[in-house]
Design goal:
single chain; 18% strand; 4 helices; four-stranded parallel beta sheet
Length: 120
């Protein structure tokens, strides 16, 4: 792996509609537009992942859906174990993919993503 992109989901609702709990919180309109903007910025810099590991939470899946068009053909794995994963777990996931792709994107949650970013 030559590049690692660590991302937190875009801006979300404070609570899930219909009492769905934290896992079901959706993006706000601002979150959707911000996700498009960041994906365009990444693409403009030539930072297009070969593989995206995405938490299975609604907000991370929606963030990826908004990003997908700008980033083109990317292998995507939606993984339940990335939901609120700590930095150690995220690091193990990154290390498991080191030899499998040139550019890896991990789209998950804080504080795990934030802490891992400070470690790299």
């Amino acid at each position: 792996m030559h590049r690692l992109i660590l991302m937190r989901h875009a801006k979300t609702e404070r609570t899930a509609a219909h009492g769905g709990g934290d896992h079901a919180r959706a993006l706000t309109e601002r979150g959707r537009s911000d996700a498009v903007l960041i994906s365009q910025a990444l693409a403009d810099q030539g930072l297009k992942p070969d593989l995206a590991l995405v938490s299975d939470a609604v907000r991370t899946r929606q963030t990826w859906e908004e990003m997908r068009e700008a980033l083109g053909d990317v292998e995507v794995r939606v993984l339940a174990d990335l939901y609120n994963a700590d930095d150690a777990h995220l690091r193990r996931r990154v290390q498991a993919e080191e030899d499998n792709c040139g550019c890896l994107l991990v789209l998950a949650h804080n504080p795990g993503i934030h802490v891992l970013a400070h470690q790299y």
